[in-house]
Amino acid sequence: MAELLSIKEASQWATEYLDKNVTTSNISYLIQYGCIKRIGDNGSTQVLKDELIDYYKDQKQNRQDTWKDQLGDDLNWALSFEQYKEAETTKHVHRLHPYKGKFIPQLVEYFLDSHTDKF
């Protein structure tokens, strides 16, 4: 039988699995945008552990090596902003709706601070 986890339990499991902080907000985000299914009614939201494993298994690998395999060695890993938590890259309005073309604020700041003097 499939193991069900509450949002809090899912957050704790993902934090241990990835060895980095995964908040209950992160899990709620995955549910809200259909990355994992919501199970339960009447305020007892649960998720399937198997779906969490499927979602997070790719993130458990070394992301830099994975991206270099896909894009080549000229990848500028500093622009990945890997060191920031999701909460720091989704400032105030960045979760209002899914939009594939949005940029994390740190990337915009990087280009504006580094390149605007040339214009």
Layout of helices and strands, plus pairs?
Layout: E1 4-6, H1 7-18, H2 24-32, E2 46-48, H3 49-60, H4 63-71, H5 86-89, H6 105-115
Antiparallel strand pairs: 1-2
Give an account of the 3D structure:
- With 119 residues, the protein is mainly alpha-helical.
- It has 2 domains: 1-60, no CATH class; 66-119, no CATH class.
- The chain has helices at 7-18, 24-32, 49-60, 63-71, 86-89, 105-115; strands spanning 4-6, 46-48.
- The protein has a two-stranded antiparallel ribbon with strand order 1-2.
- Helix 1 (7-18) packs across helix 2 (24-32) and helix 1 runs parallel beside helix 3 (49-60).
Low-confidence stretches: none
Which structural class best describes the helix and strand composition? mainly alpha
Largest sheet: 2 strands, antiparallel
Oligomer: single chain
How would you briefly describe this protein structure?
This protein is mainly alpha-helical and 119 residues long. 48% of the residues lie in helices and 5% in strands. The chain has two domains: 1-60, no CATH class; 66-119, no CATH class.
Key phrases:
two-stranded antiparallel ribbon, 6 helices, 2 domains, mainly alpha, 119 residues, single chain
